[in-house]
Design brief:
Largest sheet: 7 strands, antiparallel
Helix content: 10-25%
Number of strands: 23
Structural class: alpha+beta
Number of helices: 13
Shape: globular
Length: about 700
């Protein structure tokens, strides 16, 4: 599509129309650090929201009626993609337009991002249209497009309009009464940076500040009323009923400052007499003796919790096009298929407004792979019976552009069936996010999620996520050591694909612990496809003997880099700290050493200088008494400091204590906990938006 054009959704559908659509906003960043937040506004006949509740963004991601669901970010071959599901059958009749926008923060503009685009797909995931944006400019908020009614049908318009005053300004223009948290940021000037001389103890509670970029037209920021809420317990307290929670005063206005996210407090001391006492569990694992037992138990446990905890069930199925409605789940259902009935591991059914959405579920545990003929049979059954999807569950991680199972579709059939995949690591991640960071509806739901997590993480469940680097791992390691590999060897590509799966799983694990999105960074140029990128990585592995990846952690400037050197058997995790724009280099060095007071003594610190030439380097243990040793002898301009930790790499291909997968996971978690967390506690908070506006 081109800017300003529009099209009816019915014209894009081969069937009876489109009941739901998945809108994806995507972009790429040359540095790998660029990001944006999506938002949706539901507008009435006057072009304004009916109430503040019609504004959906990171602090209000799901509509109560299921018409809008913000699904969050997913990595792509060229950056990241933010997805939104619209259930068009659930949109209130007095809503005439639904605006899809995104915003950046801390002064960043959309012109700094590459390949800005919006795509639409139907509920099965089939693409309907694409709108690419080439002229975003320096604006900090941007309307990509809008869905709007014309009579009885829905149409999409490619808008491509920018706003200089950020998310709050965009929302205000559409009638949203915004309240930004400026009160807690008033003391931001007092926070130390690398230029400060006196150490400041880290704060015990941190909260992200308003993300609205400043602009000359930015509206005034109202002071926040209440401070951050207390940290969640290990099992979040139940929410009050609607009657009890009814406010005595006018409902609070939406805040574009992000909600505070905290980790749970330490669990209370057990009443057991000694450690040998085992706590009673809802889902026991001790009786599991075979892989068939594990698959049956895992399917039943997961599907039952999905049905009983609506937030969790919706979170897992919304991305697959399921509506927000009453969910029921079933196991071991017999369905006719030729001469021999088939028994999928499970069935998910969601009802809304008299319509049913149905998905067949096929589950594998431990290292068992999905069987193509089995999945093909379920896809054929689903197509004949009018079901919407087949969902596969296993410890494997699907890669972009490389489906785990190739399924052939009969083009003569009118009904389309979508094939989706979930890894057990993704299931555990979503449960962690709800239970430990976002909270759920009541104490019973929280307890069910806690029991599910305990089951998935138990050694005997078989649901541990990606756990084997594959048959090519050992031959490739040996070939690199002996220098007998050649470019184009298919085993190199197998190892690269396994490495990408491992990195995605590490992102899920770390993100679940932190309560933030953690995504692999893609620095690919526009137009490069995933297969070409993996082929280039395989060539570098052959010539350099190294596997490399970068992770972007939401709320943390910079990226965490990890390199596995197969020649030396070493893992390197690193993070670059940019030099301040003002001050003296010696002051920067002293301040950095104080920030790293609790970091490991074997942390390597390297000074980065202009021109890329190597600067001074040394361990933290040696530099603590003499920070001046970090300064270049020739007074070359300092651009930053690189912090690195090294550790031995696991040898075996599996997930055992001495395995490569465990060593990578441990290295990333240790580096974040001991190094990046120290920097986060000491980092200055951004200035209040009113101050930034005054500065401009």
């Amino acid at each position: 599509m081109v800017k300003g054009s529009n099209i009816a959704l019915s014209a894009l559908s081969d069937g009876d129309g489109v009941d739901s659509v998945i809108v994806s906003l995507g972009w790429a960043s040359p540095t790998g650090e660029g990001d944006a937040d999506v938002s949706v506004l539901l507008l009435g006949g006057q072009g304004k929201v009916r109430s503040d509740a019609d504004f959906y963004f990171y602090n209000n991601p799901v509509a109560a009626d299921g018409s809008v669901q913000l699904l969050g970010k997913a990595p792509t071959g060229e950056g990241s993609e933010d997805r939104i599901v619209f259930d068009l059958t659930a949109v209130p009749a007095d809503v005439e337009r639904m605006v899809v926008a995104a915003s950046r923060y801390e002064g960043a503009g959309f012109g700094e991002l590459d390949d800005l685009r919006v795509t639409l797909a139907d509920g099965t995931g089939d693409g309907l249209l694409r709108f690419a944006i080439d002229d975003a400019g320096s604006v900090s908020a941007f309307i990509f497009g809008e869905l709007y009614r014309r009579g009885e049908e829905w149409k999409f318009r490619a808008v491509g309009q920018g706003y200089d005053n950020g998310l709050a300004g965009l929302a205000t223009d559409f009638g949203v009464d915004i309240e930004d948290d400026a009160g807690d940021a008033d003391d931001a000037d007092e926070q130390p940076d690398l230029e400060a001389e006196d150490p400041v103890p880290p704060p015990t509670v941190t909260e992200e500040q308003p993300t609205r970029p400043a602009g000359p037209e930015a509206p005034p920021v109202a002071p926040s009323g209440q401070g951050p809420s207390a940290a969640l317990e290990a099992v979040p307290a139940p929410r009050r009923s609607e009657e009890d929670a009814r406010p005595e005063k006018t409902a609070a206005r939406p805040r574009t400052a992000r909600k505070k996210v905290t980790l749970p407090k330490v669990v209370k001391k057990s009443l057991a007499e000694n450690d040998s006492w085992r706590q009673a569990r809802l889902f026991p694992v001790s009786a599991l003796k075979s892989d068939r037992d594990r698959e049956t138990r895992a399917t039943s446990v997961l599907l039952s919790v999905m049905a009983q905890v609506p937030e969790f069930g919706r979170r897992l199925t919304a991305a697959f096009g399921a509506p927000a409605g009453r969910m029921e789940t079933f196991t071991e259902v017999s369905l006719p298929h030729g001469d021999t009935p088939r028994r999928p591991d499970g069935v998910i059914r969601v009802e809304r407004a008299g319509k049913l959405w149905t998905a067949l579920v096929e589950t594998k545990t431990n290292g068992n792979a999905l069987k193509p003929e089995q999945v093909q049979a379920y896809a054929d059954i689903a197509a004949r019976r009018g079901y919407e999807a087949v969902i596969t569950l296993s410890n494997d991680v699907a890669l972009e552009g490389s489906p785990l199972v190739d399924v052939k579709t009969d083009g003569r059939r009118k009904h389309k069936v979508a094939l989706w995949h979930l890894s057990w690591a993704e299931v555990a991640h979503q449960a962690q996010m709800l239970l430990r960071h976002e909270g759920v509806g009541n104490a019973a739901h929280a307890w069910l999620l806690q029991e599910l997590l305990h089951y998935l993480q138990h050694d005997n469940s078989g649901c541990h996520g990606f756990q084997n680097m594959g048959a090519a791992w050992v031959p490739v390691r040996r070939g690199i050591d002996e220098e007998t590999l050649c470019q184009g060897d298919p085993r190199l590509l197998e190892v690269v694909e396994s490495w990408e799966r491992l990195i995605r799983q590490v992102c899920l694990g770390l993100g679940g612990e932190l309560g933030h999105k953690v995504l692999p960074v893609r620095r690919a140029r526009r137009g490069s496809d995933p297969e070409a990128r993996r082929a280039a990585m395989a060539d570098r592995l052959c010539t350099e003997g190294k596997l490399h990846a970068e992770l972007r952690i939401e709320g943390t400037p910079g990226v965490l880099a990890i390199t596995a050197d197969l020649r030396t058997g070493k893992l390197r995790t690193s993070f670059d700290v940019p030099a301040p724009e003002q001050g003296y280099p010696l002051t920067w060095a002293k301040r950095l050493i104080r920030m790293l007071a609790e970091a490991p003594a074997d942390l390597h610190v390297e000074t980065l200088v202009e021109g890329g030439a190597g600067g001074p380097r040394g361990t933290l243990e040696r530099l603590r008494p003499e920070p001046g040793d970090m300064l270049p002898k020739n007074n070359a301009p300092i651009t930053g400091f690189r912090l690195s930790l090294f550790k031995g790499m696991g040898n075996s291909r599996g997930k055992t204590e001495s395995g490569f997968i465990r060593s990578v996971d441990d290295a990333v978690h240790r580096f974040h906990a001991s190094v990046i967390a120290s920097l986060d506690r000491s980092a200055p908070r951004p200035a209040p938006s009113t101050q930034r506006a005054a500065a401009t």
